[in-house]
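thought: fold this chain, then report.
action: predict
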Amino acid sequence: MTRVKMCGITRSQDGLAAAEAGADAIGLVFYGKSPRNVGLDQAAGIVRLLPPFVSTVALFVNPVPSEVDAVLRQVRPDVLQFHGEETPEFCRSFGVPYLKAARVRPQTDLLQFAAVYADAQGLLLDAWSQAGHGGTGERFDWNMIPANLPKRIILAGGLSTANVRQAIGLVHPWAVDVSSGIEVAKGIKDAALIAAFMKEVKNAV
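observation:
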């Protein structure tokens, strides 16, 4: 089955709902401009209550090293996700597996991007938007993804119960990443939407 990451978790009950529905990972946003931003104590509390075998991903946008180091010390995420203009040297400098997000638009050369970030654990493909670095609920044209992209793809950007089955059928990503598509308000997830999203993923072929 396609793996699932549920991002922008701000409450322990939402992290638990994601885990109980079968999500493989949750995402915690450490970016002050995001409505889904979490503090260190808040994030550590969410992680502490997760059951075994649910990965935690810490998302950053152009952080300074001390910000990442603080999250690594207190929250202990399994994976780092960089959503800004971070260099590959910066991303790998923490000695932790990382994902690199590409904000896709027509002029984006994803093959070149994959070559630059060759040591990333995977590439997260999101929609380019003036509204911000992810979590905008906007999607991009999935036909822009090269069939021979040599990295495992995490597909993001405007996914919901209405389109995730179609997305999986067309792109065949390693994983899908959802945030706004399972929310009743920014940062507030809905258990019924979480369960419905997981059902659509499981039924995808």
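thought: worth noting. Helices lie at 12-21, 40-48, 65-74, 88-92, 110-116, 164-171, 191-203.
final: tokens above.
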